[in-house]
């Protein structure tokens, strides 16, 4: 099989905002406790954070991390995670059926984010709480005034503000599973009024409104909600989780095309409201929850009552296989190819809970299969995404026709003097000979071909054995992408 990518450096989609390589930590399962925070662990630092986890997160080069939820935030009192730890209340977490000890809150998390070289994307509770608590939280985190909540922060040992610049107006408020679920008019009105107060408290912040939580449901909700919030918000959220319960890899991989269509649909709605409002501002996308999630669902349902009302329950601990890594790698290309409108994105989540990094209590930390495509995208996929012409054979699955075997994105990093080509071969049977035409770039030369491949689509990594890991392919006369493989091709180019 042969395929071709034609690139012209003058045809750009846009500049990549590094925040598309963001992630997410929710107070859920072992993401926080036994994940990033374990004071008795041999690697624990002065604040109880696992330094082995810190080093792995730093390798991923994550620029922004959404916190503290997720469904959790819709029942959360942010004040519980501040001040003297010995006086913090334990609460029933009604979203996940656990006990929240509040030993980690915004006081600690903003410091952890600094230690992993990241920023915080903070979410406020618009489920069981509202605008007053939201504006107080902004004051606590960001204000320099001589006022109650800024002074509480100082009393808690933080003279300087946290400087959190991105804030989410609730989480998945269109979903009936959400505490304080609202219809589009209810949420739109509350979000708009909350935004006004938050912006009066700190005019420098940017706000994310809750979009709908699934492709096919976005139309009415997103349009109505934006009709209220458009003047005050900067981003609309999107959430997607990929699944393969039918064990059909060819069909599974087509969900990348669905994600592409989903982004185009939300962009169209945002622009329709812009026209209606006669607005100058453009609303962009924060794809602040996306990942593969289905491996643990059946087990979590079976164990719904097991260990209920305990802390750090084992929940949503998907063990990712090789085909999941291909999906994550493909989705990163989708985000890069929409960098003109997708300005932030969060792989959900970061540690233990549907995560690239796993930990053992008191023991090892290791990386799952999905760690590697994220690592190579975040560390090398910076600059401008180029608009390409691709020529690829196609396949059909369950009556769906015209699905190209090749998924690709091309990033020009002018500062580094390189062009990086990401390529996924979705064929389950055939290798692909790839021609990359970079004729507009003088003196281009392929200097690195990183390949993520395993003959077994179901291969997994665990704490003792790494079965899925990147390999460097020797540079030859031809570029060959193995069947069902994810690849990074790095070319040096003349400036």
Write the layout of secondary structure elements.
Layout (H helix, E strand, L loop, with lengths): L1 E14 L6 E3 L26 H10 L3 E4 L23 E3 L4 E3 L5 H10 L3 E6 L6 H12 L5 H8 L10 E4 L14 H18 L4 E4 L8 H12 L5 E8 L6 H5 L1 H23 L6 E9 L4 H6 L19 H16 L4 E7 L8 E3 L5 E3 L3 H10 L3 E8 L2 E4 L2 E5 L1 E8 L4 E8 L6 E6 L7 E8 L17 E3 L6 E3 L3 E8 L3
Parallel strand pairs: 1-19, 2-3, 2-11, 3-6, 6-7, 7-8, 8-9, 9-10, 10-11
Antiparallel strand pairs: 1-14, 4-5, 12-13, 14-17, 15-16, 17-18, 18-23, 19-22, 20-21, 20-23
Helix pairs in contact: 3-4, 3-5, 5-6, 6-8, 10-11
E-strand count:
23
- Percent range for helical residues? 25-40%
Strand order of the largest sheet: 21-20-23-18-17-14-1-19-22
Biggest sheet layout: 9 strands, mixed
Going by CATH, the homologous superfamily of the largest domain would be Glycosidases
* Overall domain count: 2
Q: Could you name the ranges where pLDDT drops below 50 across 5 or more consecutive residues?
A: none
CATH level-1 class of the largest domain: Alpha Beta
Number of helices: 11
CATH fold-level topology of the largest domain: TIM Barrel
Helix/strand/pairing class, anyone? alpha/beta
